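Researcher: Next entry: DUF6787 domain-containing protein (Echinicola pacifica).
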Amino acid sequence: MSKGNFFHRLQEKWKLNSLWQVFLVLLAFACTGLTVLYIKQPIFDLLGVDMSTGGFWKTFLYLLLVLPLYQAMLLFYGFVFGQFHFFWDKEKKFFHRIRSLFIHREK
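Model: Predicted structure:
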């Protein structure tokens, strides 16, 4: 990988055509993170989960509910910012890795 600036390295790593696309992808990540940050608390309040204490169930519910919500919101914002195909390719790789944790193929 070249020693260009940070954004050029992201463009090369993600195989994007322009720095504008890099900006849009980063904007989609930022909007997704903020949206999930605002939605997480009402979801946990609805389920009666106290966020002030840690614990197994809070972590389990977070992974079970918020992680898929994050992935869906990422696709939504990718669509809004015209980068759906970029995020869809990343999602397919992500779900393939998750699936491979639970399904072992015989060789």
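Model: Note for the record: The mean pLDDT is 88.
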